[in-house]
Amino acid sequence: MTEFLLGLRLLFGAGRGNRVRFFLMAAGGSLGVCCLALVLTVPGILQAHDGRAAARQPVSSSKGAADGTLVLQRSDAYGSKSFTRVFIAQGKRGTRSAPPGLTALPAPGEVFVSPRLHALLREAPAVKGLLPGRETGIIGASGLAHPDELYAYIGTTPARIADGSRTLKGFGYDYAPNPAVEPSTLTDVRFALATLVLLPLGIFLSVCARLSAASRMRRLAALRLLGLSIKGIRRVNSAETVVAALLGAFLGLAEYWVLNQVMSRTGLSALRWYPADGALSATTIAVCLVGCPALAWFVGRRSAREAAADPLAVRRTAPPRPPSKWGGLLLVSGLGIVSGYCATGLTGRPASSVGMNALLVVGGVVLTGVGLVLTLPLLSYVLARRVGRTTRSLTLSLAMRRNEAEPGSTMRVVTGLVLLVYAASLAQGVLIQLEQVTRPDGPVQDYSLSLSGISTQQERDLGSVPGVRTHAVMMNSWVDLENPRPDEAFASSATALVATCAQLDRMVRHTRGCVDGEVMRLVDPNSSVGSDLKPGAPFRFRLTGGTAAHVDVALPAAKVVYSGYSASAVGNAVLLVPPSALPAHARPRDAELLLTSSSEPAQVRGVLDGIGTVAPIAEVELVGLNVQGLEQISVVETLLALGMVMGLLIGVAAFLVSVTDRAVERRAQVTAVTLIGARTRTLRAVQCLQVVPPLALGLVLAVVTGKLAESSYLITGGGAIRWDIDGLPLLGIAAAGVVSIAAVGSLPLVGRRIDPELIRRD
Predict the structure, then answer these.
(1) What is the 3-state secondary structure of 661-691?
(2) pLDDT by residue (tens digit) across 558-585?
């Protein structure tokens, strides 16, 4: 306790500069703790979403009392968002329990809507067509997964929902039917966030705990020479680092509380939550208040080891020992694992993520990242030593000799930025893997809308929605199934695509033999659809709006050979009918409007928003894709973007803190070099060269190892994309930008004022 109190007295009695450094340590630690709390709270936010969604889920059965309460649930797409409507018809003997967010079941004609839907009804009155009845109230927060959800409870009568309804028994499931993020995907997201945020965060907190390390080591060495024990030296050093970390932890938790209040009300692009969802849990508080001071104590204990063991060497500034080579062993081990999995992809027999492979891939990625961090001081030392021996440039020689004398400072300066680039590759891999799982494997996306639910003008407007490549009509033939006769001419059914050859070309990979203006047979060699039909088979298509009630088409011998996509509505058609074959002003009765766009998630969301603007009450079917999957992609992209922002913030903060602290620590050396004639321009060039070469070397290693780690993840994931070549330019631009910012940020750190007193004090 005596040594601890001595450390506190030295902390507050060693001058204004020491107190400023203490509060800088606390401020830096608070930033790290705030980011840590945010990462630890994200799973709780998603769990709160799923918990409320599960609690409101109707529990029903197909059999029940004749006069029981009925329920019918419909989930459609409004733009790129899900729009859920729950129709409830109260019975005499049915349940009376209300769902979360309501005080009672809605009576016939009553409509309860979510706050976002309430605002949407004012913005787009046409949506009222989906909500038969009068708006009676607002659904409470306990009945909504998130504040922006489109949700409604509609009271009706049993006769109106007799078809397809079920008997309502109550509300509440043990699981969410459509979780915000699938459990398997959430595991990948947690792994990516841990790499993006937690690894740089650990480095950043270590950097904050080692601010002004050289000055403190000299002070501790003096105490050791005065007779203080080794344990006492460690306690004195821990007093400053632990108190600063503890103060930073409290400040960080307060910063997170403010951030949660602001972000929960403003929201992110695809993730909204209530303030209570992001409240700090006991586990998060314990991790922040115990883990961060423990890390500071560990770092302080290691940093005080040299001053306690050899105080004379510290006071006389003896040359430090070369960095340890054990970090290189970790890097080689991690690269060996990820390179082995990459080799399985090259041999044509990719390994799967089953059993031990899943653990080995994660272990290889973590070992590579940790080994990269621990190897940077050694690489900087070797580079500085070789360049310093061979160069004839005074500026470069000064920079390299300083890096050779203090190789450990390189890790504190550049590690955060290097880890950010390394983690960016893993984030790209997670997004690629997620998109392969949740959306069709093809460059196009089809949208199907019932033609009877839209007007002729809306049909024309939908074809011109931004992002839509082309549009066509899919019509189904008519067969009298109620009164079949053996001699019925139209004994089979078929689907026809009403489109021109140009429209067909934009909906499939390629075509051969198409002739405009003629009815032709559609043949896909990779599909068996229509293979049992004989040329000349007649089909009748019913029409509305024109003079003719129907049009008869015979299956021709002429055919169009095409290659379609795996998830496309065109694969169901056996006939290509030109628009000119239909009577004027006539529309097929049993038909769908088919739109085609790019399958990029941003493009799909834009087209869905355009469809919602033109036809807000039309039901849209995404061929091979559901809106819930699209929303999951948006949530994951938002989480990864949040992780990238936090990682960038942490990396830049670690860089600025480290470079500034190193510049302050080297004021005596800079003053000495200035007094013997060095110009300010030379000193700034030296400062820049001390940072840029090791940072550039680390970024090159980060790009190479990051791509290998990403490829091993993609290969074991089993997707079609195994080598993310398209992501290299983005990483290259990011690395070049990081080097440029680091170079510019290093220039102002050499002061113009010369203070010879610094040399006398030293």
Answers:
(1) HHHHHCHHHHHHHHHCCCCHHHHHHHHHHHH
(2) 888 888 877 777 877 888 888 888 887 7
